[in-house]
Specification:
The complex is a heterodimer of chains A (about 110) and B (about 110). Chain A is mainly β. Chain A is built from no helices and twelve strands. In chain A, strands 2, 5, 6, 10, 11 and 12 form a six-stranded mixed beta sheet that branches. A four-stranded antiparallel beta sheet of chain A has the order 3-9-8-7, with no helix packed on it. In chain A, a hairpin with a 5-residue loop joins strand 7 and strand 8. The relative contact order of chain A is 0.33. The model of chain A has no long low-confidence stretch (mean pLDDT about 90). Chain B is globular. Chain B has about 110 residues and is mainly β. Helix content of chain B is about 0%, strand content about 55%. In chain B, the strands form two sheets. In chain B, strands 2, 4, 5, 6, 9, 10 and 11 form a seven-stranded mixed beta sheet that branches. A four-stranded antiparallel beta sheet of chain B has the order 1-3-8-7, with no helix packed on it. Chain B is built from no helices and eleven strands. The chains are: A mainly beta (about 110), B mainly beta (about 110). At the A-B interface, strand 6 and strand 11 of A face strand 5, strand 9 and strand 10 of B.
């Protein structure tokens, strides 16, 4: 079965510092990986995805993610964190079957302090 | 604005009530989804529709009844719910069920069952 894991419930970082939110995956074959962000009392917003090609994927709001096949990881990164980046972040993998459903990790709360 | 609109945003109901959640997408997508988001739990896929046909029912209790009259609208009919059904219900759409496309989420309907 396909799955993703986000090992950290919460990540704390100071504004202006680089941030990393970790994600590892378990799939058969090539993975299709996604990152979403959820602000309080809002739905999920798409940030970026990896389907194929360059291992470094750039997305919205200055975020990027690096696909690492040997480590089965897809960590989300940003060179300089903003207080407004504070939110709940979800990693997801797309099911290879006919349903096309997204399978989500448990989420990581990012707290950026001034 | 993601192009996916959910109503109502908040709903309080008793266990004997019957209510419905509505989702409408203006993106021309063909696949629509219901997810349940409870506190401290991963997002749970409930139902998937593709071209108005239900393609996945993720062992959801029968007190939740989905309806998809066309590719733009998705409903979730609720009756005799339990307090543990209190959660944020998220609707999403995608172009189709292909593995590479991202999902677009609505803002969610916050349901409280008394």
């Amino acid at each position: 079965a396909q799955s993703v894991a986000q090992p950290e419930d919460q990540v704390n970082v100071a504004e202006g510092n680089p941030l990393t939110v970790k994600c590892t995956y378990s799939v058969s074959g090539n993975p299709y990986l996604f990152w979403y962000v959820q602000y309080p009392n809002r739905g999920l917003q798409f940030l970026l995805k990896y389907i194929t090609g360059d291992n470094l994927v750039k997305g919205s709001y200055g975020f990027e993610a690096e696909f690492n096949k040997s480590q089965t990881s897809f960590h989300l990164k940003k060179p300089s964190a903003l207080v407004s980046d504070s939110a709940l972040y979800f990693c997801a993998v797309r099911d290879k079957g006919n349903t096309g459903k997204l399978i989500f990790g448990q989420g990581t709360t990012l707290q950026v302090k001034p | 604005e993601t192009g996916v609109t959910q109503t109502p945003r908040h709903l309080v109901m008793g266990m004997t009530n019957k209510k419905s959640l509505k989702c409408e997408q203006h993106l021309g997508h063909n696949a629509m989804y219901w997810y349940k988001q409870s506190a401290k739990k991963p997002l749970e896929l409930m139902f998937v529709y593709n071209f108005k046909e239900q393609t996945e029912n993720n062992s959801v209790p029968s007190r939740f009844s989905p309806e998809c009259p066309n590719s733009s609208h998705l409903f979730l009919h609720l009756h005799t719910l339990q307090p543990e059904d209190s959660a944020l219900y998220l609707c999403a759409s995608s172009q189709d069920r292909s593995n590479t496309g991202e999902l677009f989420f609505g803002e969610g309907s916050r349901l409280t069952v008394l």
